[in-house]
Amino acid sequence: MITVRKKLLPKVSVIIPTYNRVAYVCEAIESALAQTYPHKEIIVVADGSPRNIVEKVRGYGNKVKLFYKENGGVASAINYGLRQATGEYIAILADDDTWLPQKIEKEVNFLEHHPEYGFVYTGAFLVDKQGEIVGQRTVYEGEEPTFERLYKGPNIVCSPSNTLIRKECLDEVGWFDENISGSEDYELWMRLAKKYPFTYFDQVLTRYRVHSGNLSHNYEKRLRNHLKIFRKPEIMEGRSLWQRIVRIAEVYYYIARIHDRRGGYAQAAWYYFQAVLRCPVIGFFHWSKGIKRYRFTFIYRILRTYFLIIQCSMKALTRNMLPQMLRAIKNIFFRLMVASAYFINRPRKFNIQNPVRNLGLICYEFFHHDLGKFGGYGKTIQNITEHYNPLKDKMGTKVILSNEYPVVDKPVIQEVNKADVLFRAPANKRYLLNFWEYIQLSRKLQTDLFISIDYYETYEYPLMASPATPLLIWIRDPRSQTEWQRLATVSGELKTHGMSHIEELMEFAKEESQSLKRVMELAKVLKRKIVFVTNGQFLVERAQGTYGLPDLKAYTLMNPIPQPSLKEITFSRKPSICAIGRLMPQKRFWIIGELAKRFKEVDFYLAGLTEHPETMNPVIKRYQHVPNLKFIGIIDGEAKEKLFKQSWMFLNTSIHEGLPVTFLESFSYGKCVVSSVNPEGLVEKYGFYTGDILGDGTDEASLERFSEGIQRLLDNKQERLDRGWAAREYVQEIHSFNHFEKTLLAILKTERII
Predict the structure, then answer these.
(1) Residues 581 and 496 in one domain
(2) Which of the 8 DSSP states describes residue 698?
(3) How far apart are CA 34 and CA 17, in angstroms?
(4) Which residues, other chains included, contact 366 with Cβ-Cβ below 8 Å and sequence gap of 6+?
(5) What CATH code is carried by the domain that includes residue 510?
(6) Measuring CA to CA, which residue among 262, 170, 160 is closest to residue 220?
(7) CA distances from 278 to 105, 153, 241, 304 (A)
(8) What pLDDT is attached to residue 298?
(9) Which of 98, 80, 90 has its CA nearest to residue 44?
(10) Which residues form the domain of 703?
(11) Smallest Cα–Cα separation from 488: which of 56, 69, 20, 77?
(12) What is the Cα–Cα distance from 495 to 505, expressed in whole angstroms?
């Protein structure tokens, strides 16, 4: 029974669960603080949130009660907040939603005057990621808010953000079910509605954000949760066995329809079958409104689900199973070719006098204008080939590009920048024939040893063409699921990968792990030697997670770079700061634009291009008007040398890095680095480390940390010189080609490859 209170201002506990929405959580908190209702407490539960979110919330001081817990999901976070709540009413606000100022006041006033209701919900504006209104959600016309209405679906309440609940009612029926992720609110509304009346307050007082990150966005996932909900005794109490059977069958039917519409015919047939297995006449309850009512409509409606099972099964057979059979046949021929390649491409025996005659460098890019790739991996390949190929008494280097190049219709070896480069043709009808030609060309390269720059799924193709050649996997920038989660906090990162959900990135990471395991399993059979090396031991733990190899160990093999002749460290007359990198979300180059606005007396040079113009060009245009920020594109050779010599320092704003080539190049010219990443502690030694910064990095606290480092190095020339010379000595000692060659040969001897 609901207790009627006589006091005027009952306390409201506002609970805001948050995990990784740095772009929105402050808006949610601000809207809670702006409520006209005075007697409230605001509880923010950081559900395993990154540090920058926690710091932002702490910035509100005593206005907000902050609690941190290990990540356990939305329901777990809300329940944690309920344990801390001291109010008579509970208002839950999702971290990407906001309230209109009078939302709590109006709901409290309504429930105080209507003690018969356990909770109330309001209408909501639907807004996009930018906060623009794109629609409106109000009560369903002609439908009273009742348990029966919730039971039949859909979730008329919409979201916890537009509700106000009596705490005593929650305590009576129980809190959110932590085992139902994504539909925990729907399940709670039904438990509450089973015991207490509820109603709709006819005003729009919430702004509900609609985007791909919404947990409620995945319709199929919600329906799967409904299978759990409608099996719960407290929900189905009072229902006959027939009603229970029909309701479960309906959920299976809805899931089948989703797969049917998406073209997943095998799954659709299975779920239709599950529906009729539970309720043979389920088709009677679901039929197309376009069917005319005639004598045999009743029979047709029942049989239609059986027809759908047959139809989807036939479509699955013709569209899915036959292509799978063809792929299996093609895979058999592919494996036969790999077996042939084992005998065709046998590496020569090593000798002490000339242990490595031809080194094959496997990568997806080669730093060259004709190939359109300008990343750090490609720069490493360019540095090694330019150094060794002119030296006749040293090892030669060959480049194997793993990605498909549309400019060639069959595999081909071309000379690029004095290096033999093996190009892979796109997958087409000549796939098997192309692979056979690729095997023949691999034989012509006569590689004694492969070094792959990290490992990617595309590397499997060239490695299968030479299955006996020893392989060194050079760990440079592995990305475990944890690293992908960090990257996903940056706006636009998912979009540049052609993805909309972080789960897709997780699957992408798994595919690389599975590909490497296939290569290693084949290596055991063919006795190919595979050794891991890295240019930083801090990367080994990342690699263990990326490749799914918890026992992975790696030798240290540092990245060699050309050493410029330098008598003194020079600086331009006017302060200048340089940043080099691809213009992509991960690099967060927009931070440089914001810093240029702050340091108007400093020239900022941003060297790099974007590979995603449709996404990045609008961002670039926002900063092209900044007078002291210059976008200079790709630079190399003398122009690059001049830029390095004149710059006062280098700036790196990336959210994620391995050990960047640009760091080493900067150090080789005696220049300090200001950065938000600190590989091997090098930035702390030879520059200024801002600390870890997640998200877009454009908030005041993040920009202030970058500004602090820049100002410190601008003001202190002697510190720039001292740290610069120390950085140069480090690079000369550890990152020389002589050190690289000696270390490589030592590893090969230790592993008995030579």
Answers:
(1) no
(2) -
(3) 18
(4) 373, 378, 381, 382, 399, 401, 416, 417, 419, 421
(5) 3.40.50
(6) 262
(7) 48, 20, 11, 16
(8) 67
(9) 80
(10) 576-735
(11) 20
(12) 11
* CATH number of 123's domain: 3.90.550.10
- Residues 304 and 362 grouped into a single domain: no
Pairing of β 163-166 and β 119-127: antiparallel
Residue 160 structure tokens: 């916890």
pLDDT at 502: 63
**Residue 711 predicted with pLDDT over 90:** yes
- pLDDT for 730: 94
Section 499-528 average pLDDT: 73
Write the single-letter amino acid at 635: I
Q: Which residues of 654-677 are buried (b: 16+ CB within 10 A; e: fewer)?
A: bbbbbbbbbbbbbbbbbbbbbbbb
Q: Are residues 410 and 539 in the same domain?
A: yes
* Of residues 562, 658, 653, the one with CA closest to residue 608: 653
Quote the mean pLDDT of the chain. 84
Could you tell me if 395 and 357 are in contact, meaning their C-beta atoms sit under 8 angstroms apart?
Answer: yes
Confidence of residue 6 (pLDDT cuts 50, 70, 90): very low
418/415 Cα distance (integer angstroms): 6
pLDDT at 20 over 50: yes
Amino acid, res. 594: E
The structure's pTM equals 0.64
563 domain residue, yes or no:
no
Residue 367 is predicted with a pLDDT of 72
- Note the pLDDT of residue 216: 41
- Residue 348 DSSP class: P
Let me know: does 605 contact 576? Beta carbons within 8 Å: yes
Do 532 and 678 have their domain in common? no
Residue 580: other Cβ atoms inside 10 A: 27
The rounded radius of gyration (Å) of the Cα atoms in the chain is 31
Residues 413-423, buried b or exposed e (16+ Cβ, 10 A)? Answer: eeebbebbbbb
Non-local (6+) Cβ contacts of 49 within 8 A are: 18, 19, 20, 68
Is the Cβ–Cβ distance between 722 and 713 less than 8 Å?
A: no
Is the preceding omega at residue 426 within 30 degrees of 0, hence cis?
no
